[in-house]
């Protein structure tokens, strides 16, 4: 079972983004990190030394997505442009995209649902706290102090 790890840095307007992909056993896991301004080679090296393990753990925590198999035949350049345009249109319409894009989408969905749940719990706790304070004030008023 071979495992390959790829870290790609690309410009995703308006920020530079690093995408870590882990491909193993026909499955792809991915995560991304937003850099902001364009990182230099030295900054990337330092980033990977400091945060590489955490980035790998974050990628392994994400659900795997089946990797797409690629054909060995290389199409004509004009056909390749047509296929790329068709794929871009498909992705723009909200379709599945590549395996790493699907993995990133799932990661985003998980983070969003986790954040929503945490926010809901925080609001409920705050509401209960305010209710307890109001109840204590009412009780204090009834006592006549």
UniProtKB/TrEMBL annotation:
<protein>
    <recommendedName>
        <fullName>DUF2992 domain-containing protein</fullName>
    </recommendedName>
</protein>
<feature type="compositionally biased region" description="Basic and acidic residues">
    <location>
        <begin position="103"/>
        <end position="131"/>
    </location>
</feature>
<dbReference type="Pfam" id="PF11208">
    <property type="entry name" value="DUF2992"/>
</dbReference>
<dbReference type="InterPro" id="IPR016787">
    <property type="entry name" value="UCP021328"/>
</dbReference>
<feature type="compositionally biased region" description="Basic residues">
    <location>
        <begin position="72"/>
        <end position="81"/>
    </location>
</feature>
<feature type="region of interest" description="Disordered">
    <location>
        <begin position="59"/>
        <end position="145"/>
    </location>
</feature>
<feature type="compositionally biased region" description="Basic residues">
    <location>
        <begin position="135"/>
        <end position="145"/>
    </location>
</feature>
